[in-house]
Amino acid sequence: MHFVSENFGASKLAEQFGVKGYPAVFVDGVLVASPREFGYFGEVEGSGRYAPWRSEASQAKFRADLTRMIDLILAGRKDVVARESAGVTGDVREIERIPDFRITDLTGGTVSAERLKGRAVLVEFWATWCIPCRSTLKWLGDLKQKYGDGIEVVALAVESPEDQIRSTVKSFSPDLHWAIADAGVARAFGDITAVPTLFLFDRDGRKARIVYGAPPELHDSVGKVLDELMR
Predict the structure, then answer these.
(1) Phi, psi of 208 (to 5 degrees)
(2) Cross-strand bridge partners of residue 151
(3) Are 98 and 107 in contact (CB under 8 A)?
């Protein structure tokens, strides 16, 4: 066994299998459990094999399945593992347009797709415990300052205590729309399985870019797309 540290969003193994969230479990190069198996943000029951993940029974089932897969690999039966895992994919439902969402921000105002019409829109899902999210949130504030009224930036926190969210946002630009995403909003964006996840929409509300994680080229690649949209 060896451990490899990768920047989420820049994993070659994840790219090979189309995995865009976490957790994902590979055994000897075979994807045996994808993010959907553990359930999506906000799910109570869930439809994955190990959802809801907080359930002790679900965790016990995962441990048993993983142990069996490893035993098969060690016994030279990788073909069985590959065959049984053939239906496991990393696919996520990607939206093509900004969803018709409506949410109350941290100031008590309303943020909605309707009110954002006519401008490029950046939507960032983040969490207080997510270290890579910090640099992305600062960068989003810089983009808002650069483009002004030409863009709207919506920062939606998930799986984080409200007091920590309010404390964290004090360190970043007040010009962003700060809000706490509930399960309904997360599902409207195609289900959120990882943070940070960034959505960029053009002035007509069409998807221009979706980025999962914080790959090293995030700022440059999204910046180029945004520059093009602003012309």
Answers:
(1) -110, -30
(2) 120
(3) no
Place of tokens 């959505």: 199
Q: Domains of the chain (ranges plus CATH)?
A: 12-84 (no CATH), 102-230 (3.40.30.10)
Which helix (H) or strand (E) covers residue 30, if one does?
A: strand 30-33
Are the beta carbons of 43 and 187 closer than 8 angstroms? no
pLDDT tens digits, residue range 145-168?
999 999 999 999 998 999 999 999
52 has a pLDDT exceeding 60:
yes
Q: How far apart are CA 52 and CA 24, in angstroms?
A: 16
**Beta bridge pairs of residue 102:** 112
Q: How many CB atoms lie within 10 A of CB 156?
A: 26
My answer on whether omega of the bond before 35 falls inside 30° of 0, hence cis, is no
Query: Residue 42's pLDDT is what?
Result: 57
Residues in the chain, how many? 231
Residue-wise pLDDT tens digits, 26-50: 999 899 998 888 877 655 556 788 8
Angle at 192 between CA 188 and CA 196, to 5 degrees: 125
Two structure tokens written together for 169? 């946002």
Q: Look up residue 207 and give its two tokens.
A: 């998807």
Distance between the two ends of the chain, CA-based, in angstroms? 50
**Residue 65 to residues 33, 70, 72, 80, Cα–Cα distance (Å):** 10, 9, 11, 13
Element (H, E) at 136: helix 131-147
10 Å Cβ neighbour count for 85?
18
DSSP label of 175: T
